[in-house]
Specification:
By secondary structure, this protein is of the alpha/beta class. The protein has one domain: Rossmann fold, CATH 3.40.50. Helix content is 35%, strand content 25%. The protein has 7 helices and 9 strands. The strands form 2 sheets. Strands 6-7-8-3-9 form a 5-stranded parallel beta sheet, with helices on both faces. The relative contact order is 0.22. The structure holds adenosine-5'-triphosphate. Adenosine-5'-triphosphate binds next to helix 1.
Length: 213
């Protein structure tokens, strides 16, 4: 279980997070919802160790930790809103690059990549480059790439926003099938129907006024 307590964040004079508590339970999906500008993405980036909080605590399985330590230990994976695939690498190489840089043998990384691609119905795209993929395929590659690093917690920033609305259900199905394999997930979304389709728990981030302490 990962707990964040009393997380605060300001940008200049604007308080975005004014003391937020988050509990991320093992093998569950937490949806973070709230209006545009409430700070959902900021909170996700703080959990991921990509943006520092101004204050607050982080506790992993009962022990104090930091987001930077969690990230360095490879415990957290992120699926970005725009997918951020490596454009000059094939789909398979998008999955194998980070594991091989971390010391996994090329053969083992390739075997694992091919298994993930098969599970996510991407075998036919293994040698393709990202530009040639549909939005839904790009997103599945982004999820497969994150899973290739074997995180304990997988974070998604607005996973439906860059996709055709009719793909919403298949993204929900995919997140639910990743959960069924034991993954702990956090999904930032402004889409309440989507949140309902994936979430065991929902955290609503309120929009604060600008300029307060
Ligand atoms: N790096 C930054 N520098 C300055 N202000 C920022 C920065 N990142 C976010 N903000 C501001 O913080 C507030 C919260 O932004 P954030 O993207 O976290 O909200 P959100 O709830 O994810 O919104 P949306 O649903 O529109 O994506 C916004 O007012 C935004 O302009």
């Amino acid at each position: 279980m990962l707990e964040l307590k009393n997380i605060t964040k300001k940008f200049g004079d604007q308080t975005v997070l004014g003391g937020v508590d988050v509990t991320i339970a093992d093998q569950k999906t937490l949806a973070i919802v709230g209006p545009s500008g409430a700070g959902k993405t900021t909170l996700l980036r703080i959990i991921a160790g990509l943006t520092p909080a101004d204050s607050g605590e982080m506790i992993w399985n009962g022990e104090p930790t930091t987001a930077a330590k969690m990230r360095q230990a490879g415990l957290i994976g992120v699926v970005f809103q725009g997918f951020e695939l490596f454009p000059n690498l094939t789909v398979r190489r998008n999955l194998t690059l980070a594991p091989t840089l971390q010391g996994t043998s090329a053969a083992a990384a390739t075997a694992q990549a091919d298994q993930l691609l098969a599970e996510l119905d991407l075998t036919a795209q293994a040698d393709a480059y990202p530009f040639s993929l549909s939005g839904g395929q790009k997103q599945r590659v982004a999820i497969a790439r994150a899973l290739a690093l074997k995180p304990k917690i997988l974070l998604y920033d607005e996973p439906t926003s860059a996709l055709d609305p009719n793909l919403r259900q298949s993204v929900a199905d995919l997140i639910n099938s990743v959960k069924a394999q034991g993954m702990t997930q956090v999904v930032v979304t402004h889409d309440m129907d989507f949140a309902q389709a994936v979430a065991d728990e929902t955290l609503t981030v309120a929009k604060l006024g600008g300029g307060e302490a």
